[in-house]
Amino acid sequence: MAAETIFMAALLLLAWTYLLYPALVFALAFIHRKRKRINNNNLKAATRLPSVSVIMSLFDEEKVISEKIRSLLLSDYPSDLIEFIIGSDASVDGTDEIIREFAASDSRIKYHRNSIRKGKAAMLNELVAMAGGNILIITDANVIFSGGTVRLLASEFASSRTGLCDATAVPSASPGYGMTRQENLYSSFETSLRRAEGEVWKAMTGPYGGCYAVRRELFPVIPENTLVDDLYVGLMVLQKGFDSFNAAEAVVSEDTQPDRADQYRRRVRIAAGSFQNLFRFGPFPSGRVTASFAFFSHKVLRWFTPLFLTLFFMTTVILSGRSVLYFCLLAVQLILILLSTLDLMFDRFGRTLHLPRYVTQFLLMNAALTAGFVKAVRGIKNGIWEPTKRV
Q1: Considering the domain 31-258 in this protein, what is its CATH number?
Q2: Are 110 and 84 a contacting pair, CB within 8 Å?
Q3: Residue 126, class by beta-carbon neighbours within 10 Å (0-12 exposed, 13-18 middle, 19+ buried)?
């Protein structure tokens, strides 16, 4: 009885966070989408555009920074209402020279450099203190803007209830090998789910960190040892009772690192930062029931998937001799593990098994969650981390 109870609990929690909860949110979003969109468009058209500060913290980004700054300068936003504040966190490549050249040719660009590396959170605090815009757009170096990205993000703040909104990332032209296809599919699913949460409850559970906009007065002082600053900011906005959602038409492009090892390290860092924020805010971070419900269902349960998977596997092992159902469930799990193992073996010889690669991506993602949890429990001393290699 105990094994069956644990089995059912693990199964229901996995089904809720990956299937039932997304299905519920997508269904509610489908019902409410048309009416909400019409109301929002009417409000935006009658509101004057706010002043905007685009904030970017960098470390050794010489491969992408030129393209990024050019995309910012091509924004169709009034030049008297926008500034670009770019900080180099003690970069040691050619990043600083490139920024200086752009700053010398355009007065809207403000350049700031730290002589000692402090980490992204500390750098963002310094850059935001320099900002004069009413709306802050926080962005990464490898996220390329379209001409209307800034305008479309800023126009979402026509409502005084809007605290934060993020852009919609689409993958840039990148090689289709490694983990690229799998990462892009998962990112697309996450974007759709966050967008639906924003449409239904105005309570998006954590913005896309590559590009999001937030009211200047709501941007908090971020603890310097924070690893996932965008989640910290997003939870603070929800905690203060403001709306948070995705701006579907504000499109940006981002490269996807195909290397499995780089993706794993990135996910470990994100997982550690996620648990770090969970320890700070708890599983129900907002006084709004819908916001806390969304965060718990979408984020918290997803972060504990490794535990649920372990319990599910162990109980099917225990119960496999009692019925055909449990035996088949155990067999399916063992086959999936075998397929992932074969995929990893073939990958060493430059061969890709496309369908098993999705299993590998799922298992590696949960292995990273486990490693991130251990890292968070041990304590995170500073917010310094190595950015993912650019494609």
Answers
A1: 3.90.550.10
A2: yes
A3: middle
Of the chain, the end-to-end C-alpha distance in Å amounts to 52
Using CB atoms within 10 Å of the CB of residue 214, give its burial: 0 to 12 exposed, 13 to 18 middle, 19+ buried. Answer: buried
Residue 195, token pair as written in the block: 């967008």
How many C-beta neighbours within 10 Å does residue 303 have? 19
Please count the residues of the chain: 391
Domain extent listing, the chain: 31-258
Regions of the chain where pLDDT drops below 50: none
| Joined tokens for residue 356 | 């098993």
Q: Extract the tokens encoding 9.
A: 């609990």
Per-residue confidence (pLDDT) for residue 94, from 0 to 100:
93
State the DSSP code for 203: B
pLDDT attached to residue 175: 55
pLDDT score of 12: 98
How much is the pLDDT for 389? Answer: 75
* Per-residue confidence (pLDDT) for residue 263, from 0 to 100: 87
Beta strands in the chain (DSSP E): 52-58, 82-89, 109-114, 135-139, 143-145, 162-171, 211-215, 243-254
338 φ, ψ (degrees, to nearest 5) = -65, -45
211, amino acid identity: C
Residues 6+ apart with CB under 8 A from 62: 91, 93, 94, 95, 98
21's CB contacts (< 8 A; 6+ apart) are 297, 298
* Distance between CA atoms of residues 43 and 275, nearest Å: 38
The answer to whether residues 319 and 3 touch, using CB atoms and an 8 Å cutoff, is: yes
Neighbours of 300 (CB within 10 A): 19
Segments of 149-254 assigned E as strands:
162-171, 211-215, 243-254
Cβ atoms of 285 and 203 within 8 Å: the answer is no
* Cβ 47 vs Cβ 155: under 8 Å: yes
